[in-house]
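> forwarded from #structure-qc
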């Protein structure tokens, strides 16, 4: 399934459910300091695009493009593997939660390096994420799928030397990615919420439904709260999400 097909399928509610979290905005925009021009690759509905820079977006899904607000940066329908720009056209290239959907991640990352001197990406470490309670105890199939996706190791292999910064997930995270509801487990029972999370929406529906029934049962009888009582006092948690910054 291509990136366009993925987001045409799951992207309908992205603008409402995948709202950029202000704490992540701060981390990402700090990595963009000193840059003037930016290309947002796999830009979706425009999350995390800085308003103070000259931005151009590339997005393969018309479903996602249609959700970009009128104030968003100009966008072209295209793919990471063939960016329609000349060498060094931008100061920095941004890619947030998108590399794992590209048909050829190596080619897409090479294109980011070609059109921009600096690259800033958000991805995840599957080894850390596999310890997340939802994956470890209810949906190990997520970890099995993650092992086949282009995540942190792939990004580092193709970008070369880079800095890696953890992106902790706050307990009231506004960006509804897979780990966002780690302290709000009832949210995972909502099919609309799950539909905006590729890691769940692209799994076998019967597998996910069975896991959600187990989670619902554990929430009703208090087992979930007893088992994960250590989460009660946490305000944020490291689930393996990483900010990668590289320069050539």
């Amino acid at each position: 399934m291509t990136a366009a097909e993925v987001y045409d399928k799951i992207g309908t509610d992205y603008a409402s459910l995948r709202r950029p979290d202000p704490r992540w905005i701060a981390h990402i925009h700090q990595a963009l300091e000193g840059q003037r021009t930016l290309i947002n690759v796999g830009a979706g509905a425009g999350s995390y695009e800085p308003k103070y820079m000259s931005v151009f977006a590339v997005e393969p899904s018309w479903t996602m493009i249609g959700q970009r607000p009128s104030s968003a940066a100009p966008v072209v329908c295209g793919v990471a593997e063939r960016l329609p720009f000349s060498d060094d056209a931008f100061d920095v290239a941004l890619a947030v939660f998108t590399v794992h959907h590209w048909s050829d991640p190596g080619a897409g990352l090479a294109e980011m390096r070609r059109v921009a001197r600096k690259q800033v990406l958000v991805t995840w470490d599957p080894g850390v994420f596999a310890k997340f309670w939802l994956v470890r105890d209810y949906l190990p199939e997520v970890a099995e799928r993650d092992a086949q996706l282009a995540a942190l190791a792939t990004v580092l292999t193709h970008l070369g030397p880079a800095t890696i910064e953890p992106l902790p997930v706050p307990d009231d995270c506004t960006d509804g990615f897979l780990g966002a509801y780690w302290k709000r487990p009832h949210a995972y029972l909502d099919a609309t919420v799950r539909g905006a999370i590729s890691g769940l929406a692209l799994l076998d529906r019967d597998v996910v439904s069975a896991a959600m029934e187990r989670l619902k049962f554990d929430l009703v009888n208090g087992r979930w709260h007893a088992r994960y009582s250590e989460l009660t006092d946490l305000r944020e948690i490291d689930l393996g999400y990483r900010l990668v910054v590289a320069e050539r």
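QC bot note: The CA atoms of residues 83 and 241 lie 26 Å apart. The chain has one domain: 3-247.
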